[in-house]
Amino acid sequence: MTQVAILIGSISDKDVLEPCTKVLEDMGITYRFTVSSAHRTPERTENMIQELEQAGCQVFICAAGMAAHLAGAVAARTIRPVLGVPINASALNGWDALLSTVQMPPGYPVGTLALDKAGAKNAAWQAAQILALNDPDLARRILEARETMAADVAKAGQELES
Ligand code: RP5
């Protein structure tokens, strides 16, 4: 079963998604990571969405740069949550991708995260939180991870002050 799909617009985007796959793996979430371009392979994108939904995908994470329409193209074809990660892949430093991803028409939202690796990481956390609505064990793992993060801050504070 595939709980989460990660779609990138180009294979050149692959490394940016490494923090995303790590969080999903740490949380025990099954995912499929593949490439499909909104512009270069529109039919593949459309077919992929159907295939992924049939495989049980609950959340789509879509990452692209430049004219970053991948998340919007997916949101047009599914009512499952779509999270968008704009990638800095141009001379406009990612502003083009951010604005292309975030500005969706009413009824077709893309939950747009931060640029690049920061957004990729939080897309995984956001997907985990969505899945946790119906998965108490996953909810517990998320809370435990937060406790670890809080303990790390406290430990760093103690070390800084000592
Ligand atoms: C976007 O254009 C991709 O998501 C990538 O970020 C950027 C460059 O793609 P390539 O020319 O490297 O395939 O569509």
Task: Provide the succession of SSEs.
Answer: EHEHEHEHEHH
Helix coverage percent of residues?
40-55%
Radius of gyration: 17 Å
Distance between the termini: 49 Å
Strand proportion: 15-25%
What is the β-strand count?
A: 5
Total count of helical runs of at least 4 residues: 6
Oligomeric state as shown: single chain
SSE class? alpha/beta
Outline: globular
Bound molecules: 5-O-phosphono-beta-D-ribofuranose
Sheet with the most strands: spatial strand order: 2-1-3-4-5
- Could you give a short account of the major beta sheet? 5 strands, parallel
Average residue-wise pLDDT:
98
Binding site for substrate: 10, 13, 40
Pathway: Purine metabolism; IMP biosynthesis via de novo pathway; 5-amino-1-(5-phospho-D-ribosyl)imidazole-4-carboxylate from 5-amino-1-(5-phospho-D-ribosyl)imidazole (N5-CAIR route): step 2/2
GO molecular function, one term: 5-(carboxyamino)imidazole ribonucleotide mutase activity
Domain PurE: 2-153
Strand-helix topology:
Layout lengths: L3 E5 L9 H9 L4 E5 L6 H13 L4 E7 L4 H6 L6 E6 L7 H8 L8 E2 L3 H17 L3 H26 L1
Parallel strand pairs: 1-2, 1-3, 3-4, 4-5
Helix pairs in contact: 1-5, 5-6
The chain binds 5-O-phosphono-beta-D-ribofuranose.
Describe the structure concisely.
Catalyzes the conversion of N5-carboxyaminoimidazole ribonucleotide (N5-CAIR) to 4-carboxy-5-aminoimidazole ribonucleotide (CAIR). With 162 residues, the chain is of the alpha/beta class.
Name its key features.
162 residues; alpha/beta; 5-stranded parallel beta sheet; 6 helices
